[in-house]
Specification:
Layout: H1 6-20, E1 25-29, E2 33-34, H2 74-77, H3 80-87, E3 91-94, E4 101-106, H4 109-118, E5 123-126, E6 131-136, E7 142-146, E8 149-152, E9 158-159, E10 169-170, H5 173-178, H6 209-224, H7 230-245, H8 253-265, H9 270-283
Parallel strand pairs: 6-10
Antiparallel strand pairs: 1-2, 1-3, 3-9, 4-6, 4-8, 5-6, 7-8
Helix pairs in contact: 6-7, 6-8, 7-9
């Protein structure tokens, strides 16, 4: 058996260690891209498995079909076709959803600053340009959920850049809300939709009232800073506020009024604000 070079051996050892811990892995070519489809699947001859719509392993002998090729089987990782791939691999990748994880990919300093003030602390892995924040839990993947932020979980892959530091925590609603798309229209009703503030559902988790005040101020700033897609920004901001502050009964009409005022200053009508708020409540089951 041909011995791999040091760097190839390092990739292979890392992959085997990850697989042994239950993390599905695959090799990446230069440019952080997966290896192409094998001959039997070229041109979607396999029926389109390169565009798989449901999670599941690729059944090809080669590391084919991107994220779906990720495996924890050492026999597959050591197979001849995979050995050839490792020989040309530039990095190791893994399927976060297959490991029960979600990666919040923060691509720049601004995105990191947002995460530090908006998301609960968790395990952090430094990247070339930013950070990966790892949470325990699975959700749909989504790109560009806000400037410089991608979510990688199901049907996606992420580069393995080391174990990181910090204690991994549960996937919060604030991250799930980022991938929720606003319904095309609010539910029709015979009477005008009125803004409702969620009722208290247990003990307040906020450390101090200042935590809520800072959250509202950040939400106002996010809406005010929107240079495009204002309606989408308003909706996602309402989602984030409600997912973080909406279940303990601390939100008041005054807080909602501040958010609506910021949105209307950007050109949103009162009706659009009311619909976005109602849709956010519905999306979060409130």
């Amino acid at each position: 058996m041909t011995q791999p070079t040091d760097i190839q051996g390092e990739h292979l050892r890392a992959a085997l260690a990850l697989a042994a811990s239950g993390v599905p892995v695959l090799p990446l070519r230069a440019g952080k891209v997966p290896f192409g489809n094998c001959r039997g699947c070229a041109g979607n001859a396999c029926g389109g498995r390169s565009n798989m719509k449901t999670p599941g392993p690729c059944t090809c002998p080669a590391p084919c079909h991107g994220w779906a090729a990720a495996t924890t089987d050492p026999g597959v990782i050591h197979a001849p076709s995979w050995t050839r791939a490792w020989r040309n691999a530039a990095a190791v990748a893994y399927h976060p959803g297959g490991a029960g994880l979600t990666v919040v990919d923060l691509d720049n300093a601004e995105a990191i600053a947002w995460a530090r003030t908006s998301l609960p602390a968790t395990r952090i892995v430094p990247t070339t340009r930013g950070e990966h924040w790892l949470y325990q839990g699975v959700m749909q993947s989504a790109n560009a959920v806000r400037p410089g932020v991608d979510i990688k979980s199901t049907m996606a892959y992420a580069r393995w850049l080391g174990p990181g530091s910090g204690t991994i925590t549960a996937l919060p609603d604030a991250v799930r809300a980022l991938a929720v798309k606003e319904p095309s229209s609010a539910p029709t009703a015979q009477h005008p939709v009125t803004v409702s503030v969620p009722a208290r559902e247990g003990t307040c988790p906020h450390r101090t009232p200042r935590f809520l005040d800072r959250g509202i101020a950040m939400a106002e700033q996010r809406i005010t800073a929107a240079s495009s897609a204002v309606h989408k920004t308003v909706y996602r901001t309402f989602l984030a506020v409600l997912s973080t502050h909406g279940r303990c009964g601390c939100l008041t009409d005054a807080h909602v009024g501040r958010l609506f005022a910021a949105a209307q200053a950007k050109g949103e009508s009162p009706r659009h604000c009311t619909e976005a708020w109602a849709n956010a409540l519905t999306a979060l089951g409130m």
